[in-house]
Design brief:
single chain, about 300 residues, alpha/beta, TIM Barrel, 10-stranded parallel β-sheet, two-stranded antiparallel ribbon, 12 strands, globular, Luciferase-like_dom, Luciferase-like_sf, LLM class flavin-dependent oxidoreductase, oxidoreductase activity, EC 1.-.-.-
Amino acid sequence: MTDYGRPPQFGMFPTPEADRVDEILDLVRMADDEGLDLVGIQDHPYQKRFLDTWSLMAVVLARTNRVRVFPDVACLPLRPPAVMAKAAASLDLISGGRFELALGAGAFWPAIGAMGGPERTPGEAARALSEAVDVIRLMWSGEASARYEGTQYQLSGVHPGPRPAHDIGLWLGVGGPRMLGLLGRVADGWVPSVSYFPPPALPGLHARIDESARAAGRDPAAIQRIYNVFGAITDGPSSGFLNGPVKQWVDELTGLVLESGMDTFVFGAEGDDPHQHQKWAVEVVPAVREAVARQRG
């Protein structure tokens, strides 16, 4: 059993479809009104049906007052990290400290290549992600100038700035041992999805992060664990994990906090069904918060 003792947080995962702008904005306003913590928006610039994620995040921040927003996760091969750091700091300042940054090493390489991006090998992608973390930290440092010599990225006396309004969480959407080790050393959070990393896989992945964190002199509990979860909140009997009535969702999510080490849940509903998101925000989320607090004593 693993419980890092962090307060649970909750968010939503709206699909950035270009023909559903009004529906997306209605959903995020509901998230804001109902007290959700986060809105995570997937970043696939090569997907013709999708809006540009960074443009959409700016509008979401402008249309909300309290919810925090992050790319879930940013497509590093198509977004140079120094420029992305500037954009992140800008959104954070404009929104009064409501932006977080999650990075992915890349996927769907032929699509990335078709858009003019690099088609990296696994080793190159891992190095690029590690270097990007360094570059982004330097761009947020407030130093007079910054230099960096990497195999994928370089800085040659750039003037960093502006600094973000708050210490932006730098999260990684990774799963391999090498990248989990990097995360444990230098990142603020981990962003897996239940479809790729189901609950039985979590203990071994946490162990790798924690081992690396301790070796770097860090407290593993300082690392946020954000889980993208998908399913259906129904009025009938269970039909599997995260497919069933509210009580099942409350029990399973509470177990993921107290036994499986996750502390933040970002919910994606089939078709972005607003009724599912309303049930999530109004019925599931408060009950999980209460159950976790009660069982922690």
